[in-house]
Amino acid sequence: MEQSSLGLIGLAVMGENLALNIERHGFSVSVYNRTAERTRQLVEGRARGKRIRPTYDIREFVESLERPRRIFLMVQAGRPVDEVLAQLRPHLAAGDIVMDGGNSFFKDTDRRSAELAEAGIQYFGVGVSGGEAGALNGPCIMPGGPREAYPLIEPILTSIAAQTPDGPCCAYIGPRSAGHYVKMVHNGCEYAIMQLIAEAYDLLRSACRLSVPQLAELFAEWNRGELNSYLIEITAKVLERVDEETGQPLVDLILDQAGQKGTGKWTSQDALDLGVVIPNIDAALWGRNISALKGERVAAAKLLTGPDLPAEALDSGFVATMREALYAGMVISYAQAMALLRTASREYAYDLDLAEIARIWKGGCIIRARLLDLIQAAFRRDPSLANLLVAPECAAILARTQASLRRAVQAAVGLGIPVPGLGAALAYFDSYRRERLPVNLIQAQRDFFGAHTYQRIDRPGTFHTEWE
Ligand code: NBP
Known about the structure:
By secondary structure, the chain is an alpha/beta fold. Helix content is about 55%, strand content about 10%.
């Protein structure tokens, strides 16, 4: 039997759709899944008549592939990846390529790359974004691994990726875990933007008294302008949806309790390790974590009071204020994500091309947005840009929108509506743009109680004062 161009292990939502995408682009695929029933269902269902070959044990799977073998893993991140690698390894030969397309922790990818390199196996950590629809129709793909092996997988990855006028949404990211790192930060940025959108929805609803259908129309309108992005687009669609049984907006019936999986948390944890400030991603995490305390919040709502919402809705001008505030918050969130990538590139020797990352994020992925055109242009013009906020196009946006961001935060504070994301964006902006911060006082306090010493602004050297 003819050997397959590629093998794919893991046929849950992502793996099944990726297999169909790969086959549609002219590559034959062998598939394997731990639970054989899933494999059977795929080949008897959506894959019927396609060049998708079912296999039911790992050896048969590996032997069905052209050499060097190209194997894509799409299993749950964590231990399952190690278990599958342990099963695969005795059957692989030097030069074979294994790509982990899941949301693996980047340090696990570094460890696996080093272990497999000892056997001459070329290991890629491949970030894949776009969810189920992206996997089928064209995701954004962020591959990291040995550069010399990249040409062996490039034709497949670039053809199955989302396509934009600026090229396929797939590019070599860097060595070792670079691809998984960039995917992790992508997810952190996704958290930050979702939090900002939720806050805008909350404020418009509570303060402007907009109904859910009005909000659906408003987000659809916003999506036609500078806020144009996948997350704004799906927000309009979510708000439009009516529950068939009750006739109410479905969003009103959804429990206000969110969890958070690995990637968002890892982004904040690594940013702390690297000393990079990403308060919008941090705020999105704690926004979800506090939502999880539903029982406590219900009890606290009976005891803790805040300001009453005014009898009158805020004037309609606030809607435009909110649009600008959201745009400012989005720019500031991307600035934090890019600043983290910039530092990680240096610390982990990834040699990231930030303009190219902005380019591939323009299609297929969850954070695709018109704004990425500006971000791409800014980093293309100046690859060593210290922070996106000081790129002329972004500085101009913030000069125009910051008054709205301030007004939105002020309104929220006055009304007692929590805006951790908008507040974090404003505090980041104000901190970054201030020449002098009150940390001189903190340095003096540290020297007072711990003799930590300080530096002076008027002469070089290290100083200590006997404060008492
Ligand atoms: P899941 O993350 O739910 O993983 C299910 C797959 O892992 C099944 O094929 C399952 O096999 C397999 N698996 C498990 Br669980 N333990 C295994 C083991 N010990 N050995 C072998 N196989 C094992 O699937 P998914 O939602 O399709 O996501 C796949 C990867 O892609 C994940 O890393 C995810 O984080 C990432 N991702 C997901 C999305 C998304 O929108 N869902 C988007 C982007 C990235 P079984 O059938 O035998 O149980």
